[in-house]
Write a structure and sequence with these properties.
Elements: H1 4-17, E1 23-26, E2 29-32, H2 33-48, H3 54-62, H4 79-103, H5 108-118, H6 127-150, H7 154-167, H8 170-176, H9 183-194
Antiparallel strand pairs: 1-2
Helix pairs in contact: 1-2, 1-3, 1-4, 2-3, 2-6, 3-5, 4-5, 6-7, 6-8, 7-9
Length: 195
C-alpha cells in the first residue's frame, strides 16, 4: 500500500493534468491529453522498473506537468527555439512538481530529487534519470510516433528515431521492440536502426 503522502501527491498531479484542454479518445472515452500521457508514463515505468522509488514514480507522473500552458509556438519555431522551450519547460515542471511534493508532506530533499529527475540531471550517470528517459522514449514510440511521423519527411523521422534510440538503455531498447506498431512505423524504426 502506498503511503498517504504519495497518494496525495499523485492526486494533485493528476488534478493538474486533468485541466489540460486538449482531449483525446481513449477506448471510447474522452480524457485530457496530459492525464492520458502521465498514466501511460506510469504504466511504462511498471514495465521498466516495477520496484521504482516513490520519487521516481512522482517524477514520471509529473514529467509534463501543466505543459500545455507553454505552447511550443510561444518560442521560435526553429531548433534553438525548441531547445529553449524544452529547457524552460523542464525547469518549470520541476518547480511545480517539487512544490506539490512539499505540499504533500515530502522533505525538501525528496522534493528536490523529484525536480532533478524531471530536469533529467546527470542523464547517463544517474540510473533513475536514465529510467525516466527510457520511459519518455517508450511513450513517444507507443503513443505519439505514428501521428508525429505523418507530419515530417522520412529523413527527419529516421534522424529523430536514431536520437531517441541513442538516449535509451539496453532494457529500454528491449521494451521498445515489443511495442505494437503499424507496418509503416515498424519499417521506419528498422531503417533508423540499420542506417
Amino acid at each position: 500500500m502506498s503511503p498517504p503522502r504519495f497518494e496525495t501527491a499523485i492526486s494533485a498531479i493528476d488534478e493538474a493534468h486533468a485541466l489540460d484542454p486538449r482531449i483525446v479518445q481513449i477506448r471510447g472515452k474522452d480524457e485530457p491529453y496530459e492525464l492520458h500521457y502521465s498514466k501511460k508514463m506510469s504504466d511504462y515505468l511498471e514495465k521498466r522498473d516495477p520496484n521504482a522509488t516513490e520519487t521516481l514514480r512522482l517524477a514520471i507522473r509529473a514529467q509534463h506537468l501543466r505543459r500545455w500552458e507553454v505552447p511550443r509556438d510561444s518560442y521560435a519555431m526553429n531548433k534553438t527555439g525548441y531547445h529553449l522551450w524544452r529547457t524552460y519547460l523542464k525547469k518549470r515542471q520541476a518547480e511545480l512538481a517539487s512544490q506539490i511534493c512539499l505540499d504533500s508532506g515530502y522533505s525538501e530533499e525528496d522534493a528536490h530529487r523529484v525536480g532533478a529527475l524531471i530536469k533529467k540531471e546527470n542523464l547517463k550517470q544517474d540510473a533513475e534519470t536514465q529510467i525516466l528517459e527510457d520511459v519518455a522514449c517508450l511513450v513517444f514510440l507507443d503513443d505519439q510516433f505514428e501521428e508525429f511521423e505523418k507530419c515530417h519527411d522520412e529523413s527527419k523521422i529516421i534522424n529523430i528515431l536514431k536520437k531517441t534510440w541513442g538516449k535509451m538503455s539496453e532494457r529500454g531498447h528491449e521494451l521498445a521492440l515489443e511495442i505494437s506498431m503499424s507496418d509503416r512505423a515498424r519499417e521506419l524504426v528498422s531503417k533508423a536502426l540499420t542506417c
